[in-house]
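Run: sequence + guanosine-5'-monophosphate -> complex structure.
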Amino acid sequence: MKNNASLKEIAGILKTAQTILIFTHTNPDGDALGSAAALCRVLRKMGKTSWILMDEEVPEYISFMDTELVTRDKDCLKEHDISICVDCGEYSRFPALADKFDEGKLHLCVDHHATGDGFGDHYYIDPSEAATCQLIYKLIKELEAEVAESSEDVCEGTLIDLTVAESLYTGINTDTGSFQYSNTTADTHAIAADLMNYGVDHTAINVKLYQTIPMTKLKIQAAILQRAELLFGGKVAVGYVTGQMLEEAGAVLDDAEGTIDMLRNIEGVEIAAFLKEKGEAVKVSMRAKSFANVAEIASVFGGGGHVKAAGCTLEMGMDEALDAIKKAIGEHF
Ligand code: 5GP
Ligand code: MN
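>> structure
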C-alpha cells in the first residue's frame, strides 16, 4: 500500500474541483477504461466538467464498454483544476500525455499496481485490490457520502447508475480473469454483488468479453500455439507473434490479446511469456500461475505490473527479445 491520502480525502478534493481530466495507461484494458468511464460519468453527475483523455483508439475487444466520455482532443480542457490518473501510476505508462497530466493544477492517482513509488500530489495505490475498479467503487461511495452531506437534491446512493455499475463490473471481471485469479477476494465478490443490484447483466457482459471471438483471432492463436515453446521442464511457456504471422492469418495485433492466458493455462506451466512485435520494438506480457513473481522479471527490463501479471517493452528485434526473456526467466527460477 502506497498512500499519502485516503479515498475520503481524494473524494473531498474532487468535490471542490470544477474541471477534471482523467488519464489511464496506454493500451487500456477493461479495468483502465472501466475505472475512467465510471469516475468520469459520476463527476459529470456531480455537475463537473470532466473528460477521459486518450491518445489512441479504444481496443476493439472492450469497445462495447461506455466510451462516450473518451476524447483524443488534448484541448478539451485547459489549465484544468485536476488531473487524475487511474489504473496507472507512472509517466512511462502514458508517455504521450504526460505533459497534459502535468498541466493540471493538482495531480491525483488511484491505482493498484505494485510497481512504481507513489505518483502525483495525492495518491492512493493499493496492490491488494484486484482491480482499480474496486477502488473507484469505494471512491464513488465516498463521493456519495460527501454529496449527501452537502446537498438536498442529490442524496446518498444516486451516483452509481446502471452504466457506471457496468463499467465497474467489467473492469473487475477482466482484471480477475472472471473472478478466477488469486487477487479475487471476498471484497471483490461483495462489490460485484452490489453492482449486480444496480441491474448489471453479467451474462451479457461475459458473452461480449469471452464469447464473441472473431475467427481471425482463433486463427492467429492457432499460429501462435503452433510456434510456442515449453522450456525448463515444461514450467515455462513462451509464445510470440510477428507482423508476418498476423498478415498470414488476416488478423490484427488486437487479435493476439488474451493469448497469454492460453499459454499460462497449459498443464504444468508456472510462467508464461508472450511477445508481440510492435514496430521496431517488442511488447512483452508475462503471467505467473502460483508462486513466481513476473513483476520482478519485467522490472529487469524497466517494466512492471503485478506479481502475477506484468509486462515490459524491449527495444530490439524478436529473436533478440526472445533470447533476453528466456534468459531472465531462467535466472528468476
Ligand atoms: P499486459 O500483459 O496485460 O499488457 O499487462 C499486465 C500488467 O502489467 C498490467 O497490470 C499492466 O498495467 C502491467 N504492465 C504491462 N506492461 C507494462 C510496462 O511496460 N510497464 C509497467 N510498469 N507495467 C506494465
Ligand atoms: Mn488494473
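>> summary
Residues 223 and 306 are 28 Å apart (CA to CA). The longest strand covers residues 271-278.
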